[in-house]
Structure formats: structure tokens, C-alpha cells
Amino acid sequence: NTGAIRASINGPDVTISDIEAALKFNNKLSVIKVTVPQLLAAMENAVSSYPKVDGKGGPGHFPQITGMDITFDPSNQGVNGTEEMTKPSRVTSMKVGEDLIVENGQVVDGILAKTYVMATTDYLSEGGSEFASLAAAEKLGDTGTSEQYALADYIQTALKGQVDIRDPPPN
């Protein structure tokens, strides 16, 4: 979530100090299994305070995700702190991998029983930032890996130590 990101990381040279400043809380990574109603509730919570997304004027719920796509209508009522949802409020479409979960503001028939395994921070998996649905999810384990270590390893391994973002993107 955006509330945990405290600074930009500018390339091409990235130091451990840059990573420590950006991910100040150094949360540990957890693995959980979520149902579709829990995942929908999490994404509704994530967009509930939009347009306040930075944790400075709002709660910092806005998601930092990969492997899924969501669109939402900020004119609809924001819903946060719920464990499960079967009817979207702001989320108008949601796709996990190739699975379409929400289309045109409606949950797709037959998808509610599906589950997904996901990694998140221990802070969110324990219900931080009002993510009650992630706290209600089945805990599969804690990796013991910190988010600072995971990012440093990704930069070294996947990016071969090169980050080519020289300046923060304009607001």
C-alpha cells in the first residue's frame, strides 16, 4: 500500500540507504490464501479513500499490486474495513491473471468459490490500514524475508543492478 512507501528511489545508482528510506518500516513478507469475497473486500478497501493515496492526506490504502488489474469508479461510495464482499461498490472490473472476477461492476457468476495465494506484508496480513479481509484470510506462512531485502535482491537479480529511472515521475 502507498502508506508504506516513504520516498522515491531514483536511478541509475541505488544504494541500500535509498531502499531503507523508501521502505522505512521494513515489513516482512507473508503468504496468505484469499477467497474472492476477501480479495474483493481488500481491493474495495484499497481504493476507498481515493483520491487521497499517499498516506499524507489519507490513510495510504491505495494498492501496489502485480498480477491483477482493477478499475474503479471513485464517484461510488468507498467501503473499507470489511472481511468479505460479494457485491462491488467502487470496483468496476477486476482480473487476477486470466480470471475475470468483476465485470461491469458485477461479480462474474461462478467465481466466488475460487481462492488465490498471494504474498503481502505482515502489516497488511494482520489487518493494518483497515485490511480486515487480509487478516481474515488463511495464513500459509511468513517468509522471514523483509521487503527491503526483497527489493534489493530484485534490483540485483532481475534488473542486473540497473534502475533507469533518473527522476521521479511528475505528479
* Shape type: globular
Gap from first CA to last CA:
18 Å
- Largest sheet features: 4 strands, antiparallel
Oligomer: single chain
Strand order in space, largest sheet = 2-3-4-5
- The radius of gyration computed from the alpha-carbon positions, rounded to a whole number of angstroms, is 17 Å
Q: What is the mean predicted local confidence, pLDDT? A: 90
Relative helix content: 10-25%
SS strand fraction: 15-25%
Number of strands: 7
Word description of this protein:
By secondary structure, the chain is of the alpha+beta class. The protein has helices at 16-22, 36-47, 122-125, 132-136, 147-157; strands spanning 28-35, 68-72, 91-96, 99-103, 106-107, 115-121, 138-146. The protein has a four-stranded antiparallel β-sheet with strand order 2-3-4-5, with helices on one face. Strands 6-1-7 form a three-stranded antiparallel β-sheet. It is globular. The protein starts with 15 loop residues before the first helix and ends in a 14-residue tail after the last helix.
